């Protein structure tokens, strides 16, 4: 009779064999390969986190002698990633999501009591609920990520999942790995509000960069899920690598929070990676995709230092509605400012009727009301652009729009009668 250790060794061996087969087989499908990578990345990032939470809440626990930093055996963790992140995507291409989820839940429901009987695992009363949540929060999102990547759907969701995984990597995985070699206890003497503010300031350029890559570039930050358009406005008019800049310097507030300055090694590694690997690959790929447009942009915008004035900002146009006192005031304000390549005009010279204000960028994207003003701020300087980036953030944008609408700048056109602004009906 096969024992659990033998079964684990066999599963580990078969997992490696399957991965070697995928790596060496002919007729590689790059889209499927990257779909398997994305699915595995999600599972590899979220499985340890969910398992630690499950152990802490008493849903299950692995044998004491198997304890690791992720509180589960490393070989089981690796096999789990292959079984959930690689095989279903390779064989089913992201299809039959409900059936696959049900089958995996049934397998776990049968297998986990067997592992308990062999002394590897201890299950508690509501372990089945934890396993159900494991399917919903770990497997399903990873499988969904693979599916929407294969079929090129929901670009905003693909970008959101990338950000979530990178957040786990930066704020949890790296500190945990450093703690293995340089043990530390978090010191909460430092002000949480200060660390939060510093983290937000460093993260803001990358958050807006991701938003622009999705909305304007029609792609994501990952080079293997690339954009269709070269984004040259927004934060990209001030610095060439805003995401890499944020990624590099975010280790400063993280090290302050954990009170461990070994974490700053991440900043050095990031700089060396960008200079030695990323820049070479990115520049070559961007030139192939965008040619002279990329060459001109690359030569006009720095990689690591923010410009104060965006001298090469692509032409943008902002149109205001006539006969609306608040609109006239904002129109005059922009006219008086020293903007870069911002054309300020009235709706008469636009091809359709507008409400209050509309901004049109060089790619033909339209933005209205709060979004329009925020984009126009980017034509002034870094200080005003930073305010515009804050205004464009999800939730912040919606709240500002509610306030603007609440004081009379709603979407209905307005007119002046005897010096009083009235809404047209």
From TrEMBL:
It comes from Aureibacter tunicatorum. Pfam families: PEMT. One of its GO terms (cellular component) is endomembrane system. It is found in: Endomembrane system. This is Protein-S-isoprenylcysteine O-methyltransferase Ste14. Keywords: Membrane, Transmembrane, Transmembrane helix. The chain crosses the membrane at residues 6-24, 36-54, 74-92, 99-115, 127-151, 163-182, 194-214, 235-255, 261-279. It is a multi-pass membrane protein.
């Amino acid at each position: 009779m096969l024992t659990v250790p033998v079964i684990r060794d066999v599963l580990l061996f078969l997992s490696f064999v399957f991965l070697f087969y995928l790596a060496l087989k002919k007729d590689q499908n790059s889209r499927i390969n990257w779909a398997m990578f994305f699915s595995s990345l999600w599972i590899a990032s979220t499985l340890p986190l969910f398992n630690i939470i499950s152990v802490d809440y008493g849903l299950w626990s692995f044998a004491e002698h198997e304890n690791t930093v992720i509180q589960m055996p490393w070989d089981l963790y690796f096999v789990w990633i292959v079984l959930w992140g690689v095989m279903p995507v390779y064989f089913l291409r992201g299809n039959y999501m409900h059936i696959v989820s049900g089958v995996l839940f049934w397998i776990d429901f049968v297998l986990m009591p067997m592992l308990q009987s062999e002394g590897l695992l201890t299950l508690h009363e509501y372990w089945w609920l934890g396993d159900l949540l494991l399917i919903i929060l770990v497997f399903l999102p990873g499988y969904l990520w693979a599916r929407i990547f294969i079929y090129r759907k929901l670009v905003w969701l693909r970008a959101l999942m990338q950000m979530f995984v990178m957040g786990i990597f930066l704020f949890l995985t790296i500190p945990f790995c450093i703690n293995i070699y340089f043990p530390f206890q978090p010191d909460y003497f430092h002000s949480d509000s200060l660390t939060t503010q510093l983290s937000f300031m460093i993260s803001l350029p990358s958050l807006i960069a991701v938003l622009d890559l999705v909305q304007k570039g029609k792609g994501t930050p990952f080079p293997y899920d690339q954009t269709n358009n070269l984004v040259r406005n927004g934060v990209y008019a001030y610095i060439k690598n805003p995401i890499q800049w944020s990624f590099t310097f975010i280790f400063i507030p993280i090290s302050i929070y954990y009170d461990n300055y070994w974490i700053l090694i991440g900043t050095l590694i990031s700089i060396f990676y960008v200079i030695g690997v990323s820049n070479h690959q990115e520049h070559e790929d961007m030139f192939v995709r965008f040619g002279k447009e990329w060459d001109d942009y690359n030569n006009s915008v720095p990689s690591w230092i923010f410009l104060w004035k965006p001298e090469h900002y692509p032409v943008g146009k902002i149109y205001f509605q006539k006969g609306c006192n608040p609109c006239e005031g904002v129109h005059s304000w922009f006219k008086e400012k020293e903007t870069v390549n911002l054309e300020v005009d009235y709706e008469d010279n636009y091809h359709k009727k507008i409400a209050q204000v509309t901004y049109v960028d060089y790619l033909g994207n339209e933005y209205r009301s709060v979004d329009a003003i925020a984009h126009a701020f980017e034509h002034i300087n870094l200080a005003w652009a930073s305010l515009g980036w804050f205004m464009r953030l999800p939730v912040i944008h919606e709240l500002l729009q509610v306030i603007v609408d609440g004081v009379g700048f709603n979407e209905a056109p307005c007119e002046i009668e005897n010096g009083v602004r009235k809404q047209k009906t």
